[in-house]
Amino acid sequence: MERVKTAQLYQNAEAFSGKAITVCGWVRSVRDSKTLGFIDLNDGSCFKGLQVVFEADKVDNFAEIAKFNVGSAVCVTGQLLLTPQARQPFEVHASSVRLEGASTPEYPLQKKRHSVEYLRTIAHLRPRTNLFSAAFRVRSAAAYGIHRFFQERGFVYVNTPLITASDAEGAGEMFRVTTLDQTNPPRTPDGKIDFSKDFFGTPASLTVSGQLEAECMAMAFGQVYTFGPTFRAEKSYTQRHAAEFWMIEPEIAFADLEDVMQLAEAMMKYVIRYVMDTCPQDLDFCNKFVDKGLLDRLQNVLDHDFAHVSYTDAVELLKKNNDHFDYKVEWGCDLQTEHERYLTEKVFQRPVFVTDYPAGIKAFYMRANPDGKTVAAVDLLVPGIGEIIGGSQREERLDVLQEKMQELGMNEKEYWWYLDLRRYGSACHGGFGLGFERLIMYLTGIQNIRDVLPFPRTPGSAEF
Amino acid sequence: MERVKTAQLYQNAEAFSGKAITVCGWVRSVRDSKTLGFIDLNDGSCFKGLQVVFEADKVDNFAEIAKFNVGSAVCVTGQLLLTPQARQPFEVHASSVRLEGASTPEYPLQKKRHSVEYLRTIAHLRPRTNLFSAAFRVRSAAAYGIHRFFQERGFVYVNTPLITASDAEGAGEMFRVTTLDQTNPPRTPDGKIDFSKDFFGTPASLTVSGQLEAECMAMAFGQVYTFGPTFRAEKSYTQRHAAEFWMIEPEIAFADLEDVMQLAEAMMKYVIRYVMDTCPQDLDFCNKFVDKGLLDRLQNVLDHDFAHVSYTDAVELLKKNNDHFDYKVEWGCDLQTEHERYLTEKVFQRPVFVTDYPAGIKAFYMRANPDGKTVAAVDLLVPGIGEIIGGSQREERLDVLQEKMQELGMNEKEYWWYLDLRRYGSACHGGFGLGFERLIMYLTGIQNIRDVLPFPRTPGSAEF
Known about the structure:
By secondary structure, chain A is of the alpha+beta class. Chain A has helices at residues 6-11, 62-66, 116-120, 130-152, 211-221, 257-278, 280-289, 294-303, 311-319, 337-347, 398-407, 416-423, 436-444, and strands at 2-3, 20-32, 36-42, 50-55, 73-82, 90-101, 156-157, 163-164, 176-178, 204-206, 223-231, 244-253, 307-310, 352-358, 374-382, 386-393, 429-435. Chain A folds into two domains: 4-99, CATH 2.40.50.140; 126-170 and 207-449, BirA Bifunctional Protein, domain 2. Helices cover 30% and strands 25% of the residues of chain A. In chain A, the strands form three sheets. An eight-stranded mixed sheet of chain A has the order 7-11-12-17-16-15-14-13, with helices on both faces. The first copy, chain A, has a five-stranded mixed β-barrel with strand order 2-3-4-6-5. A three-stranded antiparallel sheet of chain A has the order 8-10-9, with no helix packed on it. In chain A, a hairpin with a 3-residue loop joins strand 2 and strand 3 (36-42). The relative contact order of chain A is 0.11. The mean pLDDT of chain A is 95. At the A-B interface, strand 2, helix 4, strand 7, strand 8 and strand 9 of A face strand 2, helix 4, strand 7, strand 8 and strand 9 of B. Chains A, B: It catalyses: tRNA(Asn) + L-asparagine + ATP = L-asparaginyl-tRNA(Asn) + AMP + diphosphate + H(+).
């Protein structure tokens, strides 16, 4: 008698055919007539469950089993039979069904449809539902696919710090991190908070990006990537923003914007293919019940080269359709989601790289183009989402970077280490940031970022 | 002419023999005579560098090359020649050496030994040194090895939240996370801070463990693991503690303490083997210059089963040697590092699991043993480090857990969701936490946690 996972059975049922096996999991439903019953058992190892057949003359607790509440934890031992004619490919004929942990009729996940809004209030239980089990399994596979992609190519995974005394992009509201007594903090003689007494001896915050530190590592290892949490303290209540989310930030040396785009396209295709290969049951469910065009859209991405367009040309294309948009497009404006989606969904009908944005709407570290107006920035727009990746070639010229920082009133002294990278063996380099939750939304069709994070952090919400 | 990484050459030099290749990297040293010179070039793709031979009659800028400062970024094109008789297995005979970014004589990493203390002050440059290049490459490989281990076994990777309104272990000082104005925070009529106006509407902190949330996920997926940052706001100045570090926390359902130990042993051996296979150059360096017994010790771990001893028996063994210890051992005391290392290094001479600790020194969620005194806890001790893993079987019995929480004066209402796991389909389960930096110290022999974190956060230190 072998302890097995349902996933093993779906991978190779023949190997277990006719054998006695034990499967432990949770009861999704129980049906019974007088002497025969069925349990839909799910052990979480894959999306689909296992049909357990129990018969009055084969188990010694038939009446008990028939009364199991939904959500009960049970261990089933029995013989695996292939059932190629039936709706499910195999079933277990139980010789023993042992209750591991009971459930109650008050179990919040009875067999019916629940709203995602309600399920968010029981984040500790919702991974037991079809939707969230699929979402988080896809999340796990996508994370691993990303690691595989970079590791196979020799990238070094680097953990950039989360607590920081500098504000990476000079933009975005940040969470303060402190151990000072908030009620009566130590103060300097002039009444200000005395941060010299705080844990780090200086004001500290949660990072909004690991890019600048990743650049340090890229100038040592050539190719690196981060994969870690990132924070934004914006009181945003949209479906697309969370206060705590995960980012992937590769950075490559001796590379220009073209190399950055090639890397981004290869990575996106690799991850999509990896998740399609490893999570077919989960994606099938999403394709049926979340977003009916999902699988076609993903396959379409694999089958075509990504499009390329300059910001300047994109603006010309959009201006012709300004009557479609709430925000009218003009050269120099930041593209809104409605514009991004129009470009990728209507104009190009596939993922598109938009390059060379006006310097004024992009970060200080992006490389100035020869035209004096634009920078070597790139956003990747995908159907259904809009921007999923933002990247750039970085300004590797010390004098140009210093001039830019002065122009923006930035304090060079705070960035001495970042400038050092341009003093000692500078090299053209670039990278991008991929919002991991945006990727999971893209891979599942789920529309709300709260539903792809196990325990989402949003304004007013950090309970559990 | 093909752009290649040095690592590719060390993997299969024959494939490039006689061919024209281009390698881009940083100059570690330049030597020259009148017409012949050598560059030690390192591109970060592997530990070892590439010898570049440049000759006055083959390149058009011999004099310029000969004056390159250490740290310069260059791109070299030339023919790869195998040199089986020489100290290095191959070299490149340059037809072109192009300066990508200059360095200066002030470059802080001149070719001499620097103290690790000094190198910590230039964390942005130290990954370009032998020691830190090895440490961070091992770190990357170990991280991937861990993901591989769990993914191959069907574990679901889960991202537990970092910002939390609850204190997971009820222990350990935590960082407060806030967006309130610290100088003049909003106050309630009785003068307290009005946290209802803070970002999350309640006091929030940085997590000290994702375990409780991981338990929620394990009760849906059966087998899960976390791998993410964790925080401790303790003003500890030891070599073993950082304020921000990474943890791996697997959690398995329908599993007891024995299963937890089997998982931990399998994981440790897998990761050691993976790093030995993928980072031989890095480990060789560590074995030569950091810790001369390193490779023998790692091989020894692979070759033997881990030992097992109960806490009670371990205390008996230690008491016999109490004259060796600063802290004398008595049943009921927590084991200090000196005791842990004595057990694993002197008594067992291999990794050892110590099990069944007194309930009073362990966390509330650990499963009570039938003896009424101990809990089903386990620590894994390893030579050179002491404790590297701490785990337990979790208390899955609702009434026993509630009684324990009352005994400790804990507020049940704050843990309603954790208790729900015991109300609806509870199952015996357990898991452990592995401090990732401790693992890297173990794998490299590096003694200070500040030297295995790219940008360590310790009291007074969060600059970059």
